[in-house]
Amino acid sequence: MTTAGYCFSSYGEAVFLMLQSLIIGILILFYTHGYRASAAYAAVYIGVLSYLLSPAAPMLLVWAMQMSVMPLIASSRVRFSHSVNFCFFGDLF
After folding, report:
1. How far apart are alpha carbons 17 and 38 in whole angstroms?
2. Half-sphere exposure of residue 53, counting CA atoms within 13 Å on the CB side?
3. Which of 50, 57, 70, 73 is deepest in the core (most CB within 10 A)?
4. Contact at 8 Å (CB) between 81 and 61?
5. Sequence-distant (≥ 6) Cβ neighbours of residue 57 within 8 angstroms
6. What is the DSSP letter of 69?
7. Can you give the pTM of this predicted structure?
8. Are 41 and 24 in contact (CB under 8 A)?
9. Which H or E run contains 22?
10. Predicted confidence (pLDDT) per residue in 19-63, tens digit
């Protein structure tokens, strides 16, 4: 359990996805624009993430950010499932 009372398994996947996004962003910026750009990206990313995870961030802001992602997630799932089903099973029916 964490200090907020949530199990790690309830948000554990998101932690690894954030770390993966951070590493990929750093590597892309490092190889295209150099060390300064990648260091600036990492500093801003960690700073914003630290603020959003701290008690200083209003809960309404965190909820609004989470809710703004929901339509994107839903539309990407529908688009993906439609394209996969149509490509693989379109000629069977």
Report:
1. 18
2. 13
3. 57
4. no
5. 51
6. H
7. 0.65
8. no
9. helix 8-33
10. 999 999 999 999 999 999 999 999 999 999 888 888 888 989 888
